[in-house]
């Protein structure tokens, strides 16, 4: 009986290792898998690291900033595969563990992170020099005009910002009189500081150059419409 229990324990341990291996992939396999439709690519490095280059179609949330991470991760789909990475694998392993414990059904880690990706000879998206920031004077010129203006402080890599894209498009389709001004939440830090917009996304509504209201986070078209009255 003792021998049988020992064999069973070894088999279970082997199955556990096998299951764990399937949760982590080398760079070549990871690159092939993230090219499939329906997957979510998730970068848990800092915003500064992200700006040095990222994997195609990646969304970003800094795992070391717990409030930001837990807010943005809410906008990922738990029932769709998430392919997660950081610089070398430490943060993504911790983040993946948290996500699995909180209902995500398939979380796959990039073994060795961005370092392994580069060592495999693969390129990064967005690996360019810092883009010039929008000047505060340029922003003020755009919003201090006659009529309605909607400022969208967001970024393509921000999960809640991505969720708001169709909402904004529907709003603009219905309200042709509203001018949209976009502020890059990963680059235009001087404008963000001047208008006190520290979180993504932030929406600010102006009429005839005067601020009428603002909203931070995900909202509905109807709520934004109500602010445009």
UniProtKB/TrEMBL annotation:
Which Pfam families does this UniProt record tie to the protein? Rhodanese, Thioredoxin
Rhodanese domain span: 35-126
Recite the UniProt keywords alphabetically.
Signal, Transferase
For this UniProt entry, the molecular function terms from Gene Ontology, in alphabetical order, are: transferase activity
Q: Which residues form the signal peptide?
A: 1-19
PROSITE patterns recorded for this chain? RHODANESE_3 (PS50206), THIOREDOXIN_2 (PS51352)
Q: What positions does the domain Thioredoxin occupy?
A: 113-229
Matching InterPro entries, A to Z? Rhodanese-like_dom, Rhodanese-like_dom_sf, Thioredoxin-like_sf, Thioredoxin_domain, Thiosulfate_ST/Rhodanese-like
Record-given protein name:
Rhodanese-related sulfurtransferase
Its taxonomic placement starts with: Bacteria, Pseudomonadati, Bacteroidota, Chitinophagia, Chitinophagales
């Amino acid at each position: 009986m003792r021998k049988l229990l020992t064999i069973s324990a070894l088999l279970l341990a082997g199955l556990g290792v096998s299951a764990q291996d399937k949760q982590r992939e080398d760079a070549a396999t990871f690159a092939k898998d993230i090219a499939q439709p329906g997957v979510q690519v998730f970068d848990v490095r800092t915003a500064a690291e992200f700006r040095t280059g990222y994997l195609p179609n990646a969304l970003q949330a800094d795992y070391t900033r717990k409030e930001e991470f837990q807010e943005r991760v809410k906008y990922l789909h738990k029932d769709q595969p998430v392919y997660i990475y950081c610089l070398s694998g430490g943060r993504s392993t911790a983040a993946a563990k948290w996500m699995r414990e909180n209902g995500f059904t398939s979380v796959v880690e990039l073994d060795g992170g961005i370092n392994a990706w580069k060592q495999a000879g693969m390129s990064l998206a967005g690996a360019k020099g810092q883009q010039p920031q929008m000047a505060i004077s340029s922003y003020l010129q755009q919003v201090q005009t006659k009529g309605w203006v909607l400022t969208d402080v967001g970024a393509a890599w921000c999960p809640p910002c991505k969720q708001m894209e169709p909402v904004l498009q529907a709003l603009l389709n219905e309200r042709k009189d509203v001018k949209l001004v976009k502020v890059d939440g990963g680059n235009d830090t001087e404008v963000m500081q001047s208008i006190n917009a520290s979180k993504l996304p932030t929406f600010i509504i102006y009429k005839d150059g005067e601020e009428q209201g603002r909203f931070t986070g995900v909202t509905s078209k109807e709520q934004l419409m109500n602010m445009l009255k």
